[in-house]
Structure formats: structure tokens, C-alpha cells
Amino acid sequence: MGTSDRNDSRIETKALIAAAIDEVERQAGENPSRLRVQRTGDKLAINGEIDMAALVMVVVGSMAGTPDFNSEREIVHARPENAVRFS
Questions:
Q1: pLDDT tens digits for 36-49?
Q2: I need a labelling partner for 38 at 20 to 30 A (CA). Which of 3, 8, 19, 50 fits?
Q3: Which tens digit of pLDDT belongs to each residue from 7-45?
Q4: Quick one: CA dihedral 86, 65, 74, 23, positive or negative?
């Protein structure tokens, strides 16, 4: 999600939710043995570790309307101290 969905300078909640869901699903796809996600609409059942720094970066980027953070995200993923465990 590269740009935010803005309506008269208001941040659309749906865009933030979509950005967060996309990032969590991306992380799960990248390492399915460490993170499993089951999605039902805008709800997620999560089992595993989430890289919170990457998730926050994507949501803030969506709010700011900035381009994708792929290069920086790879650096963040290399630091396990940014991961949060969910079970």
C-alpha cells in the first residue's frame, strides 16, 4: 500500500486496517513457520511473532501517503529484538 486513502485530509480507517493486514500477511508469507495468520474480513487470528517496527512503519507510511518501505523493511526484519510474540 503506497499511498493513503485520504478524504479532505482525513485518514481513512479502512486504509490503515488494510495496510496493517497486508503487512502481517506479508510477514506470515515470508516466514510461515514463525507466524500463522487466519483472516476473516478485517479480523485476524495470529499465532507467532510480528515485527512491530515493520508494522508501524507501514501504517505510518499509509497515514503519510509515502511510498512503500521495502528497502528499509528488510533492515528492520534483520533485528529480532523488534519482534513481538503472540500466541
A1: 999 998 889 999 99
A2: 3
A3: 545 668 888 899 999 999 999 999 999 999 999 988 899
A4: positive
Q: What is the pTM of this model?
A: 0.64
C-alpha cell at 19: 495496510
Please report how many Cα atoms fall inside a 13 Å half-sphere around the Cα of residue 58, on the Cβ side.
Answer: 25
Residue 75's SS3 state is helix
Domain ranges of the chain: 9-86
| Grid coordinates given for 37 | 495468520
Q: Answer yes or no: are the C-beta atoms of 5 and 15 closer than 8 Å.
A: yes
Grid coordinates given for 38: 487466519
Residue 54 cell numbers, joined: 515493520
